[in-house]
Amino acid sequence: MAVVPLHYRFDGPRHAPAVLLLAPPGAKWTVWEPQMPELTRELRVLRVNHRGHGSSPAPAGDYSMDDLGADVIALIDECGLERLSIVGAGLGGMLATWLAAALPERVARLGYVVSTAAVPRSGTWQGLAAVARGEGMAAVVDEATRCWFTPGFSEYRPDVVKRLAEEFAGVAAAGFAGWCTAVAGLDQRSLLARVRAPALVIASAHDPLLPPGHGRRLARGLPGARLELVSGAAHLAGIERADRVNELLTEHLAH
């Protein structure tokens, strides 16, 4: 499959060290807004929209992690980024792992916000892909987003939950479905030993999709990785516990 030109945006000081933020499938780069005030103080932040997200094109058919990774490599080459850090949220962290293993000399530091090294072979992601393609994104929005926040946050900030659900529903079905097929049953544990960048793994105490065990296994596989458990959040810990996630990321990326 041909490389797709991704929609991207830079923020922060022009000549500062660069960090690439990778959102989970179904979320646009706006999912990182709570991190921007802190990260852009000392870093040049690059955000991208994956295939079918925002203004990025959405080729039909299944995608692979190689396809998604090639898109990003083409972009960072185009932007002239010889060295950068990468942070991935949710299953966007699997793309971060792929990139760190593929470009060991170019990735300075690596961060994960509630991610995993292996997706269980449950059929969930293939099912979501089939429904999205057949019935549209509105048919999968409830199932795909129900794990994003704890009940308390959903009651306290219904505006945030509604906005992100609307953004999810606006993602191209081909792009979301392609991502689902790329991660369905994906096991990256054999890649972890090839990652050289110092890594921070943030796990979320109340995430039903990727509970803390996923973070612990990911951290064990990454040489010298640091593991931090964040309380009071479900899957989108970067929004629900932005205070703690920002503290951890800024400390890690500043070195």
Description:
The protein has 255 residues and is an alpha/beta fold. Helix 3 links the parallel strand 4 and strand 5. Helix 2 packs across helix 3 and helix 4 runs antiparallel to helix 8. The longest helix has 14 residues. The termini are far apart. The mean pLDDT is 95.
Q: Please, how many domains? A: 1
Strand order of the largest sheet: 1-3-2-4-5-6-7
CATH class: Alpha Beta
The low-pLDDT segments are: none
Which structural traits does this protein have?
single chain, alpha/beta, 11 helices
Offer a quick outline of the entry:
The chain is of the alpha/beta class. Helix content is 40%, strand content 16%.
Write the layout of secondary structure elements.
Layout: E1 7-11, E2 18-22, H1 36-39, E3 44-49, H2 65-78, E4 84-89, H3 92-102, E5 107-113, H4 124-135, H5 141-145, H6 151-156, H7 158-169, H8 173-183, E6 199-204, H9 212-221, E7 226-230, H10 237-240, H11 242-253
Parallel strand pairs: 2-3, 2-4, 4-5, 5-6, 6-7
Antiparallel strand pairs: 1-3
Helix pairs in contact: 2-3, 4-8
